[in-house]
C-alpha cells in the first residue's frame, strides 16, 4: 500500500513545484509593461496616508524594475530589483 503512494507523492510534489514557479514568474522582474505601473502602484499605495510620495517612488521603482510586489505592504522579496534598490542612506527606496 505504501509503495503505491510514493509515485503519487512524487507527482504531487512536482506539480506543487511547477505551480509555485509559475506564480513566482508572474511577479518576477521584467514581467510588467510600463503601462501596468500606475494601476499596480495605485493599489500598492492605497493603504498609506502618504499617497503622493508613495506613488512617486513606486512609479519610479516600477519604471526601473518593471515589477511591483503584490499587496499594499511587504512581499518585496517577490521583486528583487524593487527590494534591493536603496537610498544613499541605505534604506529602502521603493515602498
Automatic annotation (TrEMBL):
Keyword terms: Gibberellin signaling pathway, Signal
Keyword check for Signal: yes
Signal peptide: 1-25
Xref: InterPro entries: GASA (IPR003854)
GO biological process: gibberellic acid mediated signaling pathway
One Pfam short name: GASA
Family under the similarity heading: Belongs to the GASA family.
Protein name per UniProt: Protein RSI-1
Organism of origin: Rubroshorea leprosula
